[in-house]
Amino acid sequence: MGSNAEVPTPPWRRSRKPVKRQLSQDLIVETGLHVLDAEGFDALSMRRVAQELDTGPASLYAHVANKEELLELIYDRVLGEIKLPERDPSRWREQLREYALEAHRVLCGHADVARAALATIPTGPNALRVGEFLLGLLIEAGMSPGNAALVLDRLTLYISGDAFEGSLHWTRMRASGRSDPKEYIESFIGQIADYYGSLPPAQFPFVTRHVDALIDADGEERFRFGLDLLLGGIDPLMP
Amino acid sequence: MGSNAEVPTPPWRRSRKPVKRQLSQDLIVETGLHVLDAEGFDALSMRRVAQELDTGPASLYAHVANKEELLELIYDRVLGEIKLPERDPSRWREQLREYALEAHRVLCGHADVARAALATIPTGPNALRVGEFLLGLLIEAGMSPGNAALVLDRLTLYISGDAFEGSLHWTRMRASGRSDPKEYIESFIGQIADYYGSLPPAQFPFVTRHVDALIDADGEERFRFGLDLLLGGIDPLMP
DNA sequence: CTTCTTTACGAACGGCGTTCGTTACGAACA
DNA sequence: TGTTCGTAACGAACGCCGTTCGTAAAGAAG
Predict the structure, then answer these.
(1) Chain B residues with CB inside 8 Å of A208's CB?
(2) Are A117 and A76 in contact (CB under 8 A)?
(3) What is the b/e burial string over B162-194, where b = at least 16 CB atoms within 10 angstroms of the residue's CB?
């Protein structure tokens, strides 16, 4: 690194560091997402991202205002993975449900991104794309714009909220050293179940009697159940 | 402080520092909640709590395992503020709705506690108290235990999620220096509205046409709307 | 009066987000 | 060709953070 410090670079060796891709916002966002997926939300730091790019943390600030903005950019980047069908208002119910499942699937695929999702009011291009789709679907199906906006808002909150909660389990699993979800569930959830079961039945008759019901459903099942509750409430809003 | 270092304390001056309440978990939790309410989630640190108690951060660890546990304790402490009525299964719908509004009111009263709520699986005494109430109400009204457990889970997620989102606005307001919510809404939300309105209508016809609808409802209105969606989906689960 | 256990806490470790002042360099211009 | 200049890159530092460790003080037990 120092041996040829003042020798002018020969023209046929085009750059001193061709291997090191030059910084850009996209590259930083992509790297951030990478770190997030591989090591989790708590491991995502400006320093960690910089390290991954063989540079110092200060260098990132030329392309990204701060950590919060980086998280928003990563979030919108992930929203871009959500596939949207061609809008068909006559099938609004199926399409709404399908969208919710797809969005949930994508968010859970990048588990810890959900931790950034709830903390932001998404205004990026991909968030707009999704918003436009849902708003159009509901309004064209006959819902009032006011109700459509509210449904969009509540549905988004529900999806992000559930993904957020899910990501916390993932984090907990990582922290406990385990890597097999099955093993984690048995140890952690089972522990809670034992605790519930050991409570005084006189004081908590229902909790103690129905421990099994409380821990029975897995994440996907819970999500679908809540989604169908919401859809059940949305139905009567359509003409 | 050093002038009477080795003079034995006279028995009539009972203690050298009677003004300084001795540490205890309760005191630490109460102080933490105080800091949280007064200065927000980001200001809540072990150091800040210790400072408030005129001691060093290390002293807290005798009463609290770590920051996460402190947050859980604060959360459960707040859940204790939720008032529950006498269970009346014949009025399950009203009581369920009333509970949701009360819980939401309490959580929003300690805005940033919601940031701790979502990050935890509540197993404290007050969480159990609430869980027992809801489970009992729904099962006695005729719902299957499995569905009752799922409803409890989803309703809790919705309430916490909404309160979480609300607390972020509060944080943003604090960060922006403003202290009047009205002023904040006009500046921040108005800014977003302007941005939405300025988008290319060809690409985002619905978003641009219905900007008003998107920002019209306030927090409480949105919460109630989503709550009624859920209740609408819960209704058919009852015999 | 001694011993032991519990509580308190100063000091330090390693990490964080962010800022500042300075380099290095490619493009624009003389 | 030589010079200037704007800007991306970055080393160093600031002031935080959660947590641990070793020690000191205080109270209970013997």
Answers:
(1) none
(2) no
(3) bbbbbbbbbbebbeeebeeeeebbeebeeeebe
Whether the CB of B1 is less than 7 Å away from nucleic strand D comes out as no
CB contact under 8 A, B222 and A150: yes
What is the tens place of the pLDDT at every residue in B23-80? Answer: 899 999 999 999 999 999 999 999 999 999 999 999 999 999 999 999 999 999 999 9
Find the Å distance, CA of residue A30 to C1' of nucleotide D9: 19
Interchain proximity A149–B225, CB inside 8 Å: no
CATH homologous superfamily, domain A20-64: Homeodomain-like (1.10.10.60)
A1 touches strand C (CB under 7 A): no
Q: What is the 3-state secondary structure (H, E, C) of B148-181?
A: HHHHHHHHHHHHHHHHHHHHHHHHHHHHCCCCCH
What are A108-120's pLDDT values in tens digits? 999 899 988 887 8
Per domain, the residue ranges of chain A are 20-64, 84-237
CA gap A120, B19 in Å, rounded:
44
